Amino acid sequence: MDDVMVIGAGFMGGGIAQVAAQAGYNVYLQDMNPEAITKSLAQIKWSTEKLASKGRITDSAQTVQDRITPVNDLSTAPRCQWVIEAVFEDEKMKKEMFKELDAACPVDTILASNTSSIPITRLASLTVHPERVVGLHFFGPVPMMRLVEVIKGEKTSDDVFKKSVDFIASLGQYPVKVMKDIPGFIMNRVSGVAFREALSLVENGIATVEDVDKGMRYGFNWNIGPFEIADNAGIDTYVRVGKSFAALGAADIAASSPLMEKMLEAGRLGRKVGKGFYNYSPDGKMTPFDITEL
Known about the structure:
Helix content: 40-55%
CATH superfamily of the largest domain: NAD(P)-binding Rossmann-like Domain
Shape: globular
Low-confidence stretches: none
Structural class: alpha/beta
Number of domains: 2
CATH topology of the largest domain: Rossmann fold
Order of helices and strands: EHEHHEEHEHEEHEHHHHHEE
CATH architecture of the largest domain: 3-Layer(aba) Sandwich
């Protein structure tokens, strides 16, 4: 089984590491912040134990956890067949990282980004081997959401693209193939427009957060509503992605508003901190939050 490095032990990186370990891969979870590693491993322990108790993973929780090795630098990247970057949505940071990885890793190592908005072609622009750079956009919480967009950059080789689709399938995830490299890819362009309108309805007092979410669940058969999705992904992530869209000339699909800024200022970043558009108890119970209190 291949070795996988995941760079960034945040909400998304930890989830990616978990599903790779559940699929049998040996995983190196890298972050320079020891606290991020500790928090991520604790979340993985809780999640795998819960999934194991429900019979939703084949191996024991401990076996899955033992496949994940925390590291604080990129020195183990050259031994891995897959390196997946899952750091903040910052184009300059990601470009420099891919330049470093491209120089350090053998040419057959596939370098992937979990970016949710930045074209892969731009991220690969500083590499000598852009043909091995691909987008793997996971959706969070990764262990619960099976969707992954596989994005083909302008110079991504057909072989790397096919291997990436197969890799995602091997994780038990569903690969959606993005054949043209555009800002936001497919799903965030669709959901971004829907969320922008949902925000407008709530900000103008036309509907509550809870009723919009219920409407989309009961009327359009969404599993969860747009505000629940935002809480899962992180309000801070949504704001960063919106700014990224604007910088890429795609401001029309950015979900930015005064309400989002108020959420940030209040520290209501979503499920990961226990409060967002909803309040979350330690056992995961969700209750409505009155945004007029902001």
